[in-house]
Design brief:
The chain is of the alpha/beta class and 277 residues long. It has 13 helices and 9 strands. Helix 2 packs across helix 3 and helix 4 runs parallel beside helix 6. Bound molecules: ligand C2E and calcium ion (2 copies).
């Protein structure tokens, strides 16, 4: 009977089995990378759209599989969040990023580093201490560290979040709202939380020149940010036409393939040296 059952459901169970196996493999791979400190961090420059100067860098985690191929963060970050591995992953990325920013400082370059922070990291009661320790261990000035959080993170337990953000901001670090426009933003929260930077989500930038609707969204986000006194940065800038249009709308910073893909630490250093501001 068991055999029969197997045959009858073989199509489904096969699929399910393989997806469970894949998930398990990915989790093992991620867990090992964390234990053996084998996560990489790549850095993507943030550019002043008017002067072409490098005004910052975003740290983006990288994981390779057993064959050395990159696995997309869109695959393993959600898994890291579900399994709680995100806490350790986040800490490792933060440390590497602070170390790198300090090395730029030692080269005489003031390049602020942005680190992505997952909701669970914020919820961790030790989070502010982890940040403080990273700044202290690498002797990195707090104003050179920026945390990127999503709008959705702001909505979770608002009272608690306000205390945490206040704690973090009093260290002197900056806070930016990632993927702006895609989550459940509450304008009242935005004002209350006193964030520094708004990142316009790349989904709006992508079609801003061939979709009137997207253009209006980008325009509206920019004037909203300006009226709140926030710095604005557009994600996913891929063409010079987009750069020009963003500048005309008064968005002064951008990040995207037009300038550079995320680079390994050594490639980023080479980029800095040959880049003309
Ligand atoms: P994100 O924070 O919105 O990061 C921007 C993503 O857009 C990066 O993908 C980057 O490589 C990509 N990108 C940059 N410029 C362009 C462009 O011009 N065109 C296009 N099509 N894409 C561009 P990546 O590195 O694959 O990361 C995906 C997401 O994974 C990130 O989105 C972020 O949500 C998450 N992530 C990455 N690293 C970390 C991390 O260390 N911690 C946490 N919690 N999440 C991370
Ligand atoms: Ca980000
Ligand atoms: Ca984004």
């Amino acid at each position: 009977a068991k055999q029969e059952g197997r045959n009858r459901f073989s199509f489904f169970s096969h699929d399910l089995e393989s997806s469970i196996r894949e998930r398990h493999q990915l989790e093992t791979c991620l867990r090992n990378a964390i234990i053996h400190d084998e996560l990489f961090v790549h850095y993507q420059p943030k550019i002043n759209l008017a002067t072409n100067e490098i005004v910052g860098a975003e740290a983006l985690v990288r994981l390779t599989d057993s064959e050395g191929l990159f696995i997309s963060p869109n695959e393993f970050i959600p898994l890291a969040e579900e399994t709680g591995l995100i806490i350790k992953l986040g800490k490792q990325v933060l440390y590497k990023a602070c170390q790198e920013a300090k090395s730029w400082l030692n080269m005489g370059l003031n390049i602020p580093i942005s680190v992505n922070v997952a909701v669970a990291q914020f919820a961790d009661p030790h989070f502010a201490n982890i940040i403080e320790k990273a700044l202290h261990d690498y002797q990195l000035p707090a104003e050179l560290l920026e945390l990127e959080i999503t709008e959705t993170a702001l909505m979770i337990d608002a009272a608690d979040m306000q205390t945490k953000l206040y704690q973090l901001k009093s260290l002197g670090i900056k806070i930016s709202i990632d993927d702006f426009g895609t989550g459940y933003s509450s304008l009242a929260y935005l004002k209350k939380f006193n964030v520094d930077v708004m990142k316009i989500d790349m989904s709006f930038v992508k079609d801003m020149l061939n979709n009137k609707h997207d253009y209006e969204i980008v325009k509206t986000i920019i004037s909203l940010g300006q009226s709140m006194g926030l710095a604005l940065i557009a994600e996913g800038v891929e063409t010079n036409e987009q750069r020009q249009a963003l500048l005309e709308l008064d968005c002064l910073m951008g990040q995207g393939y037009l300038f550079s893909r995320p680079l390994s630490a050594s490639d980023f250093n080479a980029f800095i040296l040959q880049h003309k501001g």
